[in-house]
C-alpha cells in the first residue's frame, strides 16, 4: 500500500485525470422572412465559414428547418447564440438560434 517504512501511503487514481468538457451544437432555425444572404453573411462572420460552406448550411436550414452551425464548449456556444440573436435583432430579422448538448 505504498508504506515503505516512511509512513506515507499512495492513493491510486481510479478515473482519467482529464475530463473532456460537454459539447453543444449551435442550431439555426428556418423562417420565412430572414434574407438568405443575411444568413450566409452571418455564418461567415460569426462561425468563420467560407462562402460556399455558409451557403450550403443556409440552404440546408432553408430546406429542412434546422441546421448545425458548429459545435463548441458551453460558454463559446452561448456567446455565438447571443451574437446571432443580437445581429438578427439589430437588422430586424426574426432569425432564431439555439444550442443543444451533443
Ligand atoms: N427561408 C429564408 C428565405 O427564404 C432563408 C433562411 C434560411 C432563413 C436559413 C433563416 O436560418 C435561416 N428568405
UniProtKB/TrEMBL annotation:
Gene name as annotated: clpS
Name the record gives this protein: ATP-dependent Clp protease adapter protein ClpS
Listed Gene3D superfamilies: 3.30.1390.10
Function: Involved in the modulation of the specificity of the ClpAP-mediated ATP-dependent protein degradation.
Subunit structure: Binds to the N-terminal domain of the chaperone ClpA.
Classification via Pfam families: ClpS
A biological process from GO: protein catabolic process
GO molecular function: peptidase activity
Adaptor protein ClpS core domain span: 19-98
UniProt source species: Parvularcula marina
Keywords: Hydrolase, Protease
Record-stated family: Belongs to the ClpS family.
Region span, Disordered: 1-18
Amino acid at each position: 500500500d505504498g508504506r515503505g517504512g516512511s509512513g506515507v501511503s499512495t492513493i491510486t487514481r481510479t478515473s482519467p485525470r482529464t475530463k473532456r468538457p460537454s459539447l453543444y451544437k449551435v442550431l439555426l432555425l428556418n423562417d420565412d422572412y430572414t434574407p438568405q444572404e443575411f444568413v450566409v453573411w452571418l455564418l461567415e462572420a460569426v462561425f468563420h465559414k467560407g462562402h460556399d460552406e455558409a451557403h450550403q448550411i443556409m440552404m440546408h436550414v432553408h430546406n429542412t428547418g434546422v441546421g448545425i452551425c458548429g459545435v463548441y464548449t458551453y460558454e463559446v456556444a452561448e456567446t455565438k447564440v447571443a451574437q446571432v440573436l443580437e445581429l438578427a435583432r439589430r437588422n430586424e430579422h426574426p432569425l432564431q438560434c439555439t444550442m443543444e448538448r451533443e
